[in-house]
Structure formats: C-alpha cells, structure tokens
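Q: For a teaching session next week I want to show students how multiple molecules come together into a single three-dimensional assembly. I've collected the sequence lines for a complex. Could you give me the predicted structure tokens for the whole thing so I can convert them for display?
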Amino acid sequence: MINLATRPTSKRVQLMATCLCDAFYDDVAKATVEVLEHAGCEVVFPENQTCCGQPAFNCGQWPAARTVMRHTAQVFAGDEPIIVPSGSCAAMMFHGATLEFEGEKDRAAIEQVGGRTWELGDFLVNGLGIKEWPGEFHARIAFHRACHTRGTASGPAVMQLLESIKGLRVLPFGEAEQCCGFGGTFSVSFPNVSTAMGELKLEHVEAVDPDYLVSGDMSCLMHLSGLAEREHRPIKTLHFAQILRDALHHRHGQATH
Amino acid sequence: MPCTTAMAKQLIDTYVAELPPTVQKAVHQSTATTTEKRYQLLGDDFTDSDALRKLAGSIRQHTLEHLDTYLAQAEESLTARGAKVHYAVTADDACRAVTEILLSAGITKVVKSKSMVTEEIHLNDYLANHGIESVESDLGEYIVQIDGDHPSHIVRPIIHKTRGDIARSFEREGLGDYNDDPETITRRARKFMRGKYLEAGAGITGANFVTADTGRLVLVTNEGNSRFCLAPAKVHIALVGIEKVVPSDADLAVLLNLLGRSATGQQLTVYTEFINGPRRHDRPSGPEQMHVVFVDNRRTEVLASDCKEILRCIRCGACLNVCPVYRQASGHAYRSVYPGPVGAVLSPLLAGDKFKELADLPKASSLCGACNEVCPVDIPIPDLLLRLRRRAHEEHVPSPGTPPMAGFALLGSHPLIWRSAMTFGAAKDYLPLDKMPVPYLGSWLKTRTLPKWRGGKFRTWMKSRHGRNGGNGK
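A: Of course. Below is the structure for the complete assembly, covering every listed component.
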C-alpha cells in the first residue's frame, strides 16, 4: 500500500503524458505542460516513456503488464513528482501496480515510482497548494469525474479549480457518479453494455445543455466523444487542463473534436 | 443496438442486448432510486460515513482472520443457550442435516424466511425431493417460488418482475382473480401465508449475524415473516454461512446501522430480531428446538484464496444497485445465486472446479469502483475482480473479445518501436477501418468513431521547446 500523503511536491516534475495523449490528444499534453509551467514548475518529459500497462493488467495478463510497468519505472527513475493528466493512469501507478507486483522481487522499486505519482488536479491543489485559478473562461460545463479518481483527492481538487475560474459555471447533472462505460478493453469485449452506459451518460449531460463536457481522463472522453459523433449528438469535450490553459489566455477553448 | 461483429461474444453482453427494455427500465429505476436514498441517508445521519464503512470493514476482516476462534466461541455460546450446532462442509451435507432434523421430528411442512445461503444450497428442491413441503414466506421469494424462477437481486428477488407478472402468477395459483394492485396482492399473500404458518412444524431461517460472545442470532426483515415462521413452529433451523459470525454485540451497533441504510435506504429495517435460543422455563415462547447449521460450502477455500475479503459481505445489495453493468443486465445475466459485483467475485469462487464456467463474470465490469465506494464493509471489489481475471488467464479460460497483450508488452517496453508506431499509426486515418475485418477495432467502431491520429505531435512540440525551459529528460 502506497502512502499518498508522503508524495514529493517539488517544482521540478516529470511528465507522464499517457499513451492516449501521445497518440491522439497532443493538445491535452501541451496544455498540461503550460499549466504546470504557469504554476512555476519545470517540466521534464522522459522521452522513452510508453504506457502504464493498464490494458494488459485489466485483461488479467499480468506478466505482460509487468513488462510494461518495469520499463515505465525505469524511465521515470529519480525523486521528482511524476504528473499525469489522467486519473486512470495515475491510479495504475500508485494502486494497480502494487497489486500487480504482489510477490514480485522488485515491488519496492515499482512502489517508489508509484509513491511519486500525482494526477494533475490533485498535484496542483494538494501538492502545490493552489486554491484558485486565474483568468477567465466563459462557458457552462458538465464535469465527468473519471471513475479511477474515486477515493482520491482528485475529483474535489479539479472541481475547486474549475469553480474558481471567472465566467465558468459547472452544471450538476443526473447519475453523475455513474461510469461512462469505457473501462479499457471492456469497451470492446462488452460493446452493448459499454455503449448503453455511454448513451445514458450522454443523455444526462445533454439534458443540462452544457457548452462542454469536461473530464480529467481522455479515455472517458474518447469513448463519449466517439459515441456522440457516431450518434450525431452535438457534444464537445475538453480536458480540464485545456480549460486551465485557455483561462490564462482569456480565450474560449478549442474542443478536441 | 446489439453488436453483431463476427467475434465470439461475452455471455453477459449478449444477455443485455436481448433483455426486454421494460425489465431493464424497471431494474434501472429501482436501483437508481435506492442508491440515491442510501447516499442521502448516510450523508444526513453521519458526519463521516466513509469512516464508518472502514470501521465495519475492519471488524469483518478481523473476524475472518480469526474465524476459527470466533466460530468455536459462537458454537459454545449457542450451545449454552440451548441451541444445537451442526457443521456442514458441502451444500449436500447442509440439506441432509436439515432433512434429518425434520424427519426425525416427524415434520413434513415447513415455512421459510428469506435466506441467500438456502438459495445457494438449493434447499427447497432437496426438501421437495424428500417429501417435505417448504413455503417461502418473504413475498418476493414466494413469487419466485411459485413461478419456478430464481431471485435476480440479493435483497429484491423480483426486481425483474412487473406487478402485472405477479398478478398473473397469483391468478394461476388460485389466489384470486387478476388484480395488479400491490396492496391487494400483499393482502392475498398474507392471508395465504397465515395458513401456512399455522400448519408448519418448523421454521427455517438464515441469519444476518451471529455473535460469538453472546450466541445471539440476528435476523432483519421488513415483512416480519421470520417472526411468523418461528411463532407457531416447534423447531427452528437456522442455516448460517460460517462467515456470518461477528465477535460481539457491540459490533452489531456498527453493522446494523450500515446494513439497513445500505440495503434499502432505511435507518433500520422494520424488524430486527435477536434470537437468544429455544424455549426454556425462563423464556416461555418460541420453538422448542433450535438448530444452527453452519454452512461452509467452499467458504474455507475462499478464505484461503487471495480474494478472502469478499467474505466480509453482509448481503446488503448496495453494490448491485450502484453497478452500471447490473443496471443494464439485471441479475439472471450472472447465471448464479449471487449477481452483481459481489456475485462476480463470489460466484466463480464458490463454483469450485466449475470456476471456468463462471470465469467471465469478473470481466463484466468497467472496474469503475462504484461498488467499493458504496460497500458498507469496504470490500475492494475491483481488486478482487482483477485477481480473478488473472486467475482465468493463468488457467487458460478463453475470454471472448479480449485482445492478446503480447504485442502491447513488446511495444510498451521498447521505446524505439513505440515511437515508430506513434508515427506510423497515422496510416489508420487513410484506411477504411470500419470496412476492414480488424478484430476488437470493429467492436469499437460499431458504435463509436476514433479520433484523428496525432501520434508523436506532442513529442515534436516538446522537443521544439528544448533548452527554453529545462528541456527533455532521458
């Protein structure tokens, strides 16, 4: 069990961009860098990074997952905080990995890396002590709390930042605690359930008619925006890092779709 | 819209596509309402209900870690109160023990209150095969019984039925003309059941808790049916999973406070009974004999496994109510006595050498963790689902729709190959993917688009800033 309370808070940080930002959502990774720099951080991007290994872990294919995690732990050696713009990948680092390495010789080394990992919003608020975010962003948004931040400080932290932005209104919506239906490989092995869950989420979001659907996890948003596009639902999505970045420039965000 | 790719299907996913929308809607409404009530009540009544859940979890975990001690103590306390304690290793042993008690007392008619462990061991079928009539007295369970159906929820066995379904069943059983008014249905059941209570020689119950230090058997119901089962009966037989023991009365204060709130959004169920043994000179009412049958039925195997935390479960059903998959699938999709998140862990474990037949259940989860968040005894259900997925993979159980991960492991541990893949992945935007037989991807594209490939763009951007602000790492 990793003690999250003792994670480092230094302003020289390593960025774990996540595989989805690497492949699809470069603007989210850019926004993350700019937000961290605005907060006074020096951002280091270890180039050999790949993925946290969660897809294999969730499929029960733990040896494959450990191969990826061992590589990741090596890439992120050091003692700086590791910042991830994804609650899911962060949870893989500080929770999933401890499970995945039960009984393995190098568990301590893996846990050293997990014990430095922060989800972006959690780091800004609880690591750096930022209580409000400057700038303006005039929009009404629905915030989908990604499931892997349950039981962590990330959800309230992100809400606190968003609600402090001038011009921004966060709209409550129905069954907000429910999962979007992505769930990694679950989305392809249980396509009917996954789609039904996503549609329910989109219906609740549409009912409050926000300008953007916002989350801290591009995996949820990839599923939801892909579903919305296929069904011609006019829902635009943003990562909260994009809002924080755009608020600094007083500009309305560019939707990822 | 049902998915129709050529790939093999997960059974639960197929079940969902075929479930009538009326059933799905009924299940969703009922579970969502109960979840909301639970959330409100816990928030209103406690300043930190999470702390209470964690305390309850530690009480249950402590009990499991010392189950040998507490079970022996419970036996001693129960015996001192005049109850007879039996142990049943298998489901068959348990059914046989009950049958022997009944036949030796010349009893051929019994009434039952709701009990999941009796569902688990298929007690009613066994008794019927031995010429003993056993009538369920919980209204929901009675309806399940007359329909030859199975419960689809731990707390609400007929969550999948409409009042019209029930009215037709009552008409068929000769309990009056078709009438779907809930009050009328309940009155008819009540009248019918009164007769059964008076005829019965024995009352069979489960137990929500058994206290080791005082030998108290605790039963909670909303219909009062367990009290009726025991009022006129000569013999009381309680079937109790060995994990139902708790150390002391004081622990009940924590657990009972959480059970009603978690199960039905009630501060306390309408009836909470503390049964302190059979009739004695100083206790002039109740059955003359009390038997407690502790049922193992593979629980010791679960206790020895890396999923023993599931035995903390107090059967409140909160995880079913909050689970997005259960809400879509209802209970029968799980093909076992225990559905939902708790069932996805417990059912394959209790299946023993038939683990493989239920190894798909732990896959039927997005691992969203809502189950753990509402669990009154803080069972880390997602972690247990993951451990069972690993076991299924190690035992080479086929998993439809799950991609092999060897290629991913290669990519994920070789940064040069990874970076090339990031660059060449752009090819996907030029291929007619939705018309190609690409496994797994087809399943995604059936209902969802994929975003444009932007592999490596961030890396280039980051490099262009090199030197300006600390630059790149290794």
